Amino acid sequence: MISQCIGRWFVALNIFLFAWQASVFAFSDENKISKVTVRGNAKVESTAILTLLETKAGARLDNTKVKDDIFTLFDLGYFSNIRVFKKKDVNGYEVVFEVAEKPAIVSIEFEGLEEVTEDDLKDKMETKLFKIINESTIASDMRMIEKQYIEKGFYLAKVTYKIEKKNENEVRLKFIIDENGKVLIGDVFVLGNKYFTDADLISKFASQPYTRSAAFSSAALYQDEKVKRDLEFLSYYYRDQGFAEVKVAKPITFLDSDREFVRITFQVEEGIQYNVGKITVTGDLLYEEKELLDLMKLKPGKLFRHSWFVQYDIEMLMNKYRDLGYAYADVNPKTTLRKDEKLVDINYVITKGNKVYFGDISIVGNTKTRDNVIRREFEVNDSELFNGTKLLKSKTNINRLGFFEEVQIIEERDAQQENVLNLKAKVKETHTGQLQAAVGYTPAAATKASWFGQGKYDEKNQSGKGWNTSLTGKFTDYNNYTLDLGFQDPRLNDSYWSLGADIGYEKREARYAQGVDFSEVKRSVSATLGRKIIELIRGSLTLERSQTIQTSEQFILDQFRSDGIKTSVILGLSRRDVDNYLDPTSGTAVALAHRFAGGILGGDYQYMESTFDTKYYIPLDFSETFRTHFKLHGRLGLLWQSGDKKIPFSERYRRGGQNDIMRGFDYASISPYYRVLKAPGDSGELYPKGGDKELTFQIEYFVPLIQEAKIKALVFSGLWSSLRR
């Protein structure tokens, strides 16, 4: 920069003058420094400058140190000129550093921005308002701006800057951008390929030739990262098809004269396609060789797939030894190519090393969740023999909680004991709760005017203890409101027992069918005790009691009535093997339950119910950060008559409603119906009777919209069947 050159010229001149003045005193005992002062500075503190200087009060005046101090201050980038003076006093010499500060930036502007916005740049800039101008940070910001354009395909974008002086102490900084248009991929060529066609290879590249359809995506934008990815993919793809000696040269790129399109050429030497020959395992064998060979994906006579070789078989061997405590077991695969027979012989040489034990287990990154909530999910303990499978399960268990955005298990060898491995669980917490509130007003129209509102508090990790608490309230008017309170401790006192309770109150006025209106008050309370049985299988026992009070003068059939007391016991058995308990995207969940109502339990209801519910989550990833998934949901329900009493009308199966598995239908609209004649010759009214058996299937597809807020779009479809007796 011109300003830097001029500045350094002034510095060099001042150093020369000071050195000439100081030479007279170089060998004098009187050249002691009595005082060091700074003047001319306004924004940079004097103490900050003095701290950086080697020239100190009480020391001998040294022109070499003064020269170094001038360069040190100049390299800060805050000063346009630096001069040094010395004044004789009774105690020696006062050394004065006189600085001229560069002006401050009072305005940062951009000229020529179209494809990139100012908001995209300002947060990433090192240059800030009201700071002293610094050419090095400005140069860094220019590179940053050009990088932003490169990521959008503008490889020819150029950035310059201009400084406009406002007054002696203030300047305006303007970045001038010449975008020069995008660089697109004109053609992609592959040379030397015989086994795969050009179309087969190019269709799998991230870099795609420009077409009309490509105008709506970024596939045809030229980007270095995509070309590097395609180069690695080409080598991997051939190796995974048995071409163990494939060679892929660095791609050749050529920019057309119009500077709009770039042509990319990949060059391949395929070599020979190999099958697997003889496989052996040698070294420290702790298993029968045949047992290990049977577990391998690669088999003699099959295609030599590099992914199976590296990603599965070697990893499998290491995990087998890690499960025996050999955390540092080494597997060294040695391959021998038999070119005439087109075979690859593989010898896995295993060095088991020494047995390793778990040491300290520490947890970092948890600002809310308590240590014991994480620690109790570990399948391993300190001083226990190392086990790789248990360690992997521990990480899976912590991930499943749904409390963390990221979980890492870091293995650190103990500094004092070589056979001890310390573990560090590093977590990054995520939001586990929600608070919702809404208030509205319905003006007078066909009905009377009224206020309505609803609120919900739901926390899956209450107080960081892993408790699940919820409070939900809805209010439509004084005759329609609900209140529900729930609590669950999934690991009671860090044991495998769980305990939960729910309390609910509801008052409503509803029309069950034409001519069947009622006012209803329902109170309910339940308690659930559960325990892990084995692995992911849990058993539960629920005690439930509810009271329903109905009043109506319009009942047509007595069996429409559903008031009374219901006391029931529910026995449950479940297995949840999902990646995240709060927001699952992969895995399965199965639940079996049987309800006993009435009988020796008392109450006005007497019946039994058996249910089977299953969910299957299938992930569909479009990238490492964009994951969609399908959810397949099936439910089978059976109601059983117990004793002489019929199955209560209110408990029979009806589907429909926004919170139901068949949410696309009106509330309870899917059901077998009664037809009741009100007069001779009348066609009658239909009333939903409900069924005693149901079979329901539903498929849902979830697409993230705002991933940070966990807001998703949902498409669903369902099928329902109900039979009645």
What is the fold's blueprint, element by element?
Blueprint lengths: L1 H22 L9 E7 L6 H7 L10 H13 L3 E11 L2 E10 L2 E8 L6 H5 L12 H17 L6 E8 L4 E9 L5 E8 L6 H5 L21 H16 L7 E2 L3 E4 L5 E9 L5 E9 L5 H7 L10 H17 L7 E9 L4 E9 L5 E8 L6 H5 L12 H13 L3 E10 L6 E10 L3 E10 L7 E13 L4 E11 L2 E10 L7 E17 L2 E19 L2 E15 L12 E15 L8 E11 L9 E15 L5 E15 L31 E4 L8 E4 L4 E14 L4 E13 L2
Parallel strand pairs: 1-3, 4-6, 7-10, 11-13, 14-16
Antiparallel strand pairs: 2-3, 5-6, 8-10, 9-10, 12-13, 15-16, 17-18, 18-19, 19-20, 20-21, 21-22, 22-23, 23-24, 24-25, 25-26, 26-27, 27-30, 28-29, 30-31
What is the tally of beta strands?
31
Mean pLDDT: 85
Percent range of helical residues? 10-25%
Q: Give the termini distance in whole angstroms.
A: 92 Å
Rounded Rg = 38 Å
Count of helices? Answer: 11
Shape field: extended
Report the uncertain regions: 1-7, 9-13, 15-29
Q: What portion of residues belong to β-strands? A: 35-45%
Main sheet, how many strands, which sense, barrel? Answer: 13 strands, antiparallel
Secondary-structure content class: alpha+beta
Q: Record the strand order, biggest sheet.
A: 17-18-19-20-21-22-23-24-25-26-27-30-31
